[in-house]
Structures are given as C-alpha cells and as structure tokens.
Amino acid sequence: MTEPTAVDDSIPQQRQIQPKLGIFDGFESYRSPSEGDLARVMNAGLVVADANVLLDLYRYTEQGRQLLLSVMAKLGNQLWIPNQVLVEFWRHRLETVSAPKASAASAIKELQDIKGRATGVLRNWAGRFALPEDELERIFEDLNSGFEAATKAVDDLVVKHAGPADRDTAADPVVAALEKALTARVGAPLSPERYKEVVLEGQRRVAQKIPPGYMDAGKGDNAAGDFLVWSQILDEARLRKCDVLLVTGDVKEDWWRRDNRQASGPRQELIDELSREAGTRLYMLTPRQFTALGASVFGIDAAETGLDDIDRVDRSREEVTEEVAETLQGEWNPSAVEALLEKLVTGGYEDRAAVIRWAADNEGFVSQETIRELCHYSPEAKLNGLARPISRFTTELQAAGLLPDHVAPLLQAVYDPNYSYVKASGFRLHVSAEPLVQALAEAEGDDPE
User: Fold this and answer.
1) pTM
2) What are the pLDDT digits (tens) for 184-210?
3) In 3D, which of 149, 146, 185 has the Cα closest to residue 54?
4) Positive or negative: CA dihedral 329, 332, 335, 340
C-alpha cells in the first residue's frame, strides 16, 4: 500500500488571483455616456424607437416632424423597431390623430358650461339689485363676446398647430414617411407559444415591480406591453451582439433612473439584464436628446424651432409623469379610460361600459330611461348601485398610479327639479372623459382584428 505524500506546511498554497476592479465595474449605469459612445451606437449599434416616438410625429409641427424623420433615415440598418412597438402604434394611431380636435371640443364644451354658470351668477346678482334689463344685456353682450373670441381662438390654434389628422392611411403623410423609413427594419412577431410565455413573465414582473412595465399595472391584460417590447429588444441584441440605444418618450420610473425627479439614465436592472443576456450596453435618450445628437452626428441642419417643437412635447409628457395629480387637475386620461372599460367588461359589468359609451356619443348625458333600457332594469328598480363598480375600479386605477387621488367621478348624478327633487334625472360623463371614450370607440371600430 502506497504511503500518502506528506504536505509541507512550510510552502504557502498558491492563492487564486482576484480580478482588479475599477470604480465603474458593476456600476456601469452611473457612467454618463459621452457623445462619442452614443455616436458609435448610432453608426454601428442597434437604435430602437418606442411607439410613443412614432406617435409623436402626429404631435409635432412640420419642422419637428421632418427633423426627426431625417435623423431616422440616416440611421440605415441600425434603426430597428420591435414588432410590439408597431402593435401599439396601430392600436393608438386613431386616438392620437383625433386627440387635438377631441381635446379642443372638450375645452370648448367646458367653456360653454362655464359661460352658462356665469350667466346664472349674473342673473342672480342683477335680480337682487333690480338691475335694469338694458344694463344686464350690455354685460351679457360683453360676456358672450369674450367666450366667442376664446372659442374661435381654440379652433384656430388647433388648425394651425395640429399635426396630420387623416384617418385614411393612404393619405396620411406620417404613415407614408414611416413606411419608407421602416421597410425591412421591423422585427417579426413572436410565435403564439413564445408570446404567451413572454406575457406571463411580463405579468409576473408587473406584480413584483420588476422593470420595465410595472407602472402600467392598471392596464389589465395590456400591462405586459412594455415587457413585450423589452423582450424583443433583448432577442435582437443577442442576435446582433451590439450595444443598444433606446429612444423613448416614456419617462416613468420603471424605465429611467431618476435623480432629483429628472430622468438621468436607464434603470440599473435594465443595464444589468442586457449585459447578462447579450453582453452589451444599454443607452437611453428622449426624442429631443436623440434628434439633437443625431443631427450633430449626421451633419443635418437642425433649426432651433424644430428642436424646440420636439422639446415641447417631451416636456409636456415629463410634467404629466412627474406630478400626475397636479397636472391633470382631476381629469381622466386615455390609459385610465381604456383600463376602466376593460375592467368593467372583464368583470361582468358590460352594461356599465355600455352606459359610458352611450353617454360619450350623446353629449355626455345619459337619462334614467336610457340607463334602464341599456341595463335591463325594471321601472321600479333603483339606480343606487349603478356607479359602484365604476367607483371600485377607479380606486384600483388610483392605487396603480394611473389616476390622481382627487380625480373627478367618471359618472356624476344629475338632479333636475323639473324631473324630481330626490331622484337623479340621469348621469353625466366627466367632460375630460367624453372625447377619450369616443376616440377609443373609433379605434376599436377600425381595428382590423
């Protein structure tokens, strides 16, 4: 039997050599990218435009729109669009096209409501002081003149500043420009099996607040949309083995790291995930940052007015995202309206959704009689519970961050003394929601699916 070899304890064992790390190793997201880094990605990496970037082409003036399209054209094959981005573009195109006129109509309707209230205040005041009728008429003439001027100004400004608003894709200049820019640059759709797998993972991440996408928790089945985009970016980055520049107007915290409320780079988790999956680096820019840098990199003459136009849209979105409660002033927004209607339908309250849609199509008001017909209520049935599921789902949307805590009720009971002093004559849809429900109905009606 062989004797074991004795170990000489006097000889130190060779130690494993540890790598020497630097200040940014493991903390790459904190390194501010240089213009050279970003220019390199534009010339040799993967540049991805989010759906909001494409939809913003409808919100820009002609100068801003052409400037962004010029930069996109210079990217060549570096430009790539995930299939899910186009899904969202087509889903929201009609809503975006209709938004300027719809919001103007909402503003004008609210001005008329204010005018009506002002007229009542003046009549009450004049009655208490027995003001002569001719004196009161002069005040009303001034009041009407002011409201007419404001209404005309709203209409004129919408015509002057709104982007292309053609529902016909054959006549839409934005669709024509994108068709040219994105030929052979859109990813293929996921297989049904892979799609289901990614959606389940996206829903898991939303529930556990893993970026990206958890800020869309109130969107129901559409909450996994951001992760679908991200998953397709990861797949393409693995295939190309190159760095990624994501251009997005989505400034929510599930995409961006925020310092003093300012977006200052992609989330560390996203940088780490791309590094693990593809061995490459993630960069992110807003549309304004991307357009300004792209114009510099590719030698495009960028008029300051065009950049200011893009910056205006960026800033308006940033302001809404940073402080929803302050900005919306109790108003509803497209995502919340869509999510609420979806919750009503999937929750077994299709009749409430029908009431909301009917009100939107009939100047915002739905009568007791129409409610009974839509909901199949008997003439004796009370309508006390009509708004309960709407209120419950509204609370859920507030908890998910889609609505401010002080949002106005979507349906408000209307009491008309000519009808009854104790029973509501019907319900009125909040003025901010009326055009949003209409736009959503139009989009669903034109959806080829």
Assistant:
1) 0.61
2) 999 999 999 999 999 999 989 888 889
3) 185
4) positive
